[in-house]
TrEMBL record:
Name of the protein in question: Putative ABC transport system ATP-binding protein
Pfam families per record: ABC_tran
GO function term, MF aspect, one: transmembrane transporter activity
Source taxon at top rank: Bacteria
Nucleotide-binding listed as a keyword: yes
Domain (ABC transporter) ranges: 3-232
Family under the similarity heading: Belongs to the ABC transporter superfamily.
UniProt xrefs under Gene3D superfamilies: P-loop containing nucleotide triphosphate hydrolases (3.40.50.300)
SMART domains the UniProt entry points to: AAA (SM00382)
One GO CC term on file: membrane protein complex
Keywords, comma-separated and alphabetical: ATP-binding, Nucleotide-binding, Transport
Length: 232
């Protein structure tokens, strides 16, 4: 198994209140799977993504990736894990405004041990003709593609996406999902997508539903609907 999450618990303290955000969460994901995490607002989806990505620590339980227990790592090892293993895509693109598309991607290329070829990536993402533009000169969809390129250039084994289509209109969202499907197939990247868009569940191998910090549904799809045929 590529990723195993066992009995993970997470609490937040604020003043005198003590909130349990993840309650004995156990799920597993195979190498190369596309996976969606669904659930109501406040159910713990982003928190789960953040602990898997090493952006936050669990209070109990274990997270193991390729037999390496990341929930035990100290801060330095955790930042190496994030650098070498994980790509993040957030709803807000976090591009650097005074760098061009190509330069925004290059910043991450320099940090990687085994980066992908930037020109090929720009081609795959349909960004070749925009590579010398600044983020402010791009549409929302193009900015999101640039954010995806930044996450992918280091060739991460695990791509974590928090509401990747949250800020996009319908047709740009479909374009983005087609692209994610292509990336998963071309590079074999394992993907975890947190979303409110339930239509996405039909194009992924595995569906996890969370409510009040607990996994309430967890299944694999027998047949997949291609992203280009999704409707909502
Ligand atoms: N740093 C924090 N400190 C205190 N409470 C937090 C913190 N981060 C999240 N929470 C709380 O944890 C709960 C789960 O938050 P989380 O962001 O994981 O939910 P979500 O399912 O991703 O929600 P949404 O769909 O609205 O993004 C919420 O009640 C939230 O207020």
């Amino acid at each position: 198994m590529f990723l195993e999450i066992k009995d993970v618990e997470k609490y937040y303290e604020s003043g005198t209140t003590h909130t349990q955000v993840l309650n004995k969460v156990s799920v597993s994901i195979e190498n190369g799977e596309r996976c969606v995490i669904l659930g109501p607002s406040g159910s713990g989806k982003s928190t789960l993504l953040n602990v898997i990505g090493g952006l936050d620590q669990v209070d109990s339980g274990t997270i193991t990736i390729e037999n390496k227990e990341i929930s035990k790592l100290k801060s330095k090892e955790l930042s190496l894990y994030r650098r070498d293993y994980v790509g993040f895509i957030f709803q807000f693109y976090n591009l650097i405004p005074n760098l061009t598309v190509r330069e925004n991607i290059q910043v991450l290329e320099f940090l990687a041990n085994n980066p992908l070829n930037i020109e090929e990536l720009l081609d795959t993402l349909g960004l070749a003709e925009h590579k010398n533009k600044f983020p402010s000169q791009l549409s929302g969809g193009q900015q999101q593609r640039c954010a995806i390129a930044r996450a992918l250039v280091k060739n991460p084994k695990l791509l974590l996406c928090d509401e990747p289509t949250g800020a996009l209109d319908y047709s740009t969202s479909i374009e983005m999902l087609i692209l994610m499907e292509q990336i998963n197939e071309k590079f074999g990247t394992t993907m975890l997508i947190v979303t409110h868009n339930t239509a996405i569940k039909d194009m992924v191998h595995k569906v996890i539903k969370i409510k009040d910090g607990r996994v309430v549904e967890d299944y694999r799809n027998d047949t997949l609907i291609p992203a280009k045929n999704l409707e909502w």
